[in-house]
Specification:
By secondary structure, this protein is mainly α. It has two domains: 66-153, Cytochrome Bc1 Complex, Chain D, domain 2 (Orthogonal Bundle), CATH 1.10.760; 166-279, Cytochrome c-like domain (Cytochrome Bc1 Complex, Chain D, domain 2, Orthogonal Bundle). It is 53% helix and 1% strand. A two-stranded antiparallel sheet has the order 1-2. A hairpin with a 5-residue loop joins β1 (66-67) and β2 (73-74). It is elongated, with a radius of gyration of 28 Å. It binds heme C (HEC) (2 copies). One heme C binds next to α2, α5 and α6.
């Protein structure tokens, strides 16, 4: 009888020790398990990104290098997502700019799920989109995962400081290359989508913006006080300084100074090439 009690007590104590040990290691095990499952979600998210988002946001989510489904390079219409002001810190700058009071996780998830504006599509089935909610979550995690110590502690790229006038700009940069300018105009910056290309004509063009094939003749009619180059320079860097009659403010994108100033030693040449193209058609 006594032996039984002893065995019972020992067994009870052993059970408690084992349970206690299991309770101790459980959080670590769970953490390990959930880190692995988040990693899997991010991997799935990367695939969803490549198939659905890269055509507008770029292969590296930097709003550079966008390709159509058939593999041709096209203008990037989306914003950079591998972007410090969107993913770094608890309250990234973008949230403030957009008047968002919630978390950045909700901001990204919600924007992807419901879409925004005229171009960013709706993705979640809840809003009539093509993706399930777990897929929206996975691709959101993929974007949020750009937050990394190395990425977020790198000093933000200083944007190019555009000289006030085209002549000062022109002095600082090499002569323009019209052929490269045409490519930038038609493809990389998507100007032709709104302004038509060399095949269109003033009379036939019925797009969002005026046809630019005759800009050399039109510029002096808009502002006779400046050169054609100066007029184009201002139209792109300060789109609201002059609004062409019959068009409204805010249609011409406002972010070209940023996009063309992204790499201060290199990308401003794009504007020089585009101006050269437009004045030598
Ligand atoms: C047809 C082009 C297009 C596609 C495809 C697209 N986006 Fe967008 N996206 C945009 C545009 C344009 C904006 C900016 C919308 C605005 O502010 O009006 C945007 C904004 C965003 C933003 C908010 C960025 C910020 O700084 O506010 C996120 C996040 C985003 N997109 C994620 C995605 C994801 C994820 C996918 C794929 C599932 C995707 N987008 C597919 C065009 C696109
Ligand atoms: C989303 C459409 C859109 C895109 C893309 C666009 N523009 Fe415009 N642009 C407009 C509209 C609309 C106007 C007329 C309203 C105004 O004056 O702002 C305009 C005006 C201009 C003018 C003045 C035209 C004139 O006849 O006086 C120039 C020059 C110009 N854009 C150049 C460009 C270049 C170069 C690009 C590409 C780097 C570009 N635009 C991209 C819509 C667009």
């Amino acid at each position: 009888m006594q032996v039984k009690i002893v065995i019972g007590t020992v067994a009870f104590m052993l059970t408690m020790v084992i349970l206690g040990f299991a309770a101790l290691v459980e959080p670590a095990r769970l953490e390990h398990f959930s880190a692995a499952s988040v990693a899997r979600q991010i991997e799935t998210g990367a695939e969803i990104y490549k198939n659905n988002c890269a055509s507008c946001h770029g292969v590296e989510a930097k709003a550079q290098q966008c390709f159509s489904p058939s593999g041709e390079q096209i203008a990037c219409q989306g914003l950079p997502l591998q972007h410090q002001p969107l993913v770094c810190g608890d309250k990234p700058e973008r949230l403030d700019q957009m008047g968002w009071v919630g978390t950045k996780q909700d901001f990204v998830y919600r924007t992807v799920a419901a879409g925004r504006g005229r171009i960013m599509p709706t993705w979640s089935v809840d809003f009539g989109g093509p993706l399930r909610n777990d897929q929206v979550e996975n691709v959101s995690l993929y974007i949020l995962n750009f937050e990394g110590e190395e990425f977020c502690s790198a000093p933000p790229l200083p944007n190019y400081e555009w000289p006030e006038t085209y002549s000062d700009f022109n002095d600082a940069w090499a002569a323009g290359d019209a052929a490269r300018g045409e490519e930038l105009y038609n493809i990389n910056y998507g100007c032709a989508g709104c302004h038509g290309d060399s095949v269109d004509s003033d009379a036939s063009w019925d797009g969002t913006g005026p046809w630019l094939g005759a800009i050399v003749d039109n510029a002096p009619l808009r502002n006779p006080d400046v050169s054609v180059e100066e007029y184009i320079y201002e139209s792109i860097l300060m789109p609201n300084a002059y609004i062409v009659t019959g068009y409204s403010e805010g249609l011409m994108p406002q972010d070209f100074p940023n996009r063309m100033g992204l790499d201060p030693d290199v990308t401003p040449q794009d504007l020089q090439d585009i101006i050269t193209y437009l004045t030598n058609q």
